[in-house]
């Protein structure tokens, strides 16, 4: 197994994963949310979102390693750690995630009719709230500027921790749950 960081968590690179997929030597699980999976995914990937990850829901074939992936590799690393902690063997994750896969020009399955990405939804909602808070702060009461400040703090927290509560909330909306 080719790994990049075998000390902490087994990690596979995109080119190795591609060769394993081509020879049907791997079980591939996408741990992103439904809306992300519907929009774009790797061929043969099964969907088990990290937010709903239960070890008994993970398919594990004895003779195939289990590879997890997400957009950047952060959520798949969390999922892999969770599975390793309960005794799974042969678990690894795609370093750099789907972004690295695409950067290398490897193929994905894209659904042009999927809802817009969660990140764009987050940008639309946060941008709207900042504009609303600023306009209400300027023309109604300066207290409304706290809305813009609150959104700014949320974005700062999301950037530092690489977790976005708004994205998780938006992912639960019905139009983001359709497969």
TrEMBL record:
Keywords: Membrane, Transmembrane, Transmembrane helix
Keyword Acyltransferase applies: no
Protein's UniProt keywords contain S-adenosyl-L-methionine: no
InterPro entries in UniProt: GlpE_sulfurtransferase, Rhodanese-like_dom, Rhodanese-like_dom_sf, YgaP-like_TM
Domain Rhodanese: 22-110
SUPFAM superfamilies: Rhodanese/Cell cycle control phosphatase (SSF52821)
Transmembrane segments: 122-144, 150-171
A Pfam family it matches: Rhodanese
PANTHER family assigned: FAD-DEPENDENT OXIDOREDUCTASE, PYRIDINE NUCLEOTIDE-DISULPHIDE OXIDOREDUCTASE
Protein name: Rhodanese domain-containing protein
């Amino acid at each position: 197994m080719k790994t990049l960081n075998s000390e902490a968590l087994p990690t596979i690179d995109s080119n190795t994963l591609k060769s394993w997929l081509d020879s049907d030597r791997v079980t591939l699980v996408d741990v992103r949310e439904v809306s992300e999976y519907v929009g774009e995914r790797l061929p043969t990937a099964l969907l088990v979102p990290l937010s709903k990850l239960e070890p008994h829901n993970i398919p594990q074939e004895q003779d195939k390693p289990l590879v997890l992936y997400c957009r950047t590799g952060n959520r798949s690393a969390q999922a892999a750690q969770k599975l390793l902690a309960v005794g799974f063997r042969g678990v690894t994750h795609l370093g750099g995630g789907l972004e690295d896969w695409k950067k290398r020009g490897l193929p994905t399955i894209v659904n042009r009719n999927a809802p817009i990405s969660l990140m764009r939804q987050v940008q639309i909602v946060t941008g709207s709230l900042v504009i609303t808070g600023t306009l209400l702060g300027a023309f109604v009461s300066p207290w409304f500027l706290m809305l813009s400040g609150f959104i700014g703090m949320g974005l700062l927290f999301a950037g530092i921790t690489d977790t976005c509560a708004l994205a998780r909330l938006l992912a639960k909306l019905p139009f983001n749950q359709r497969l």
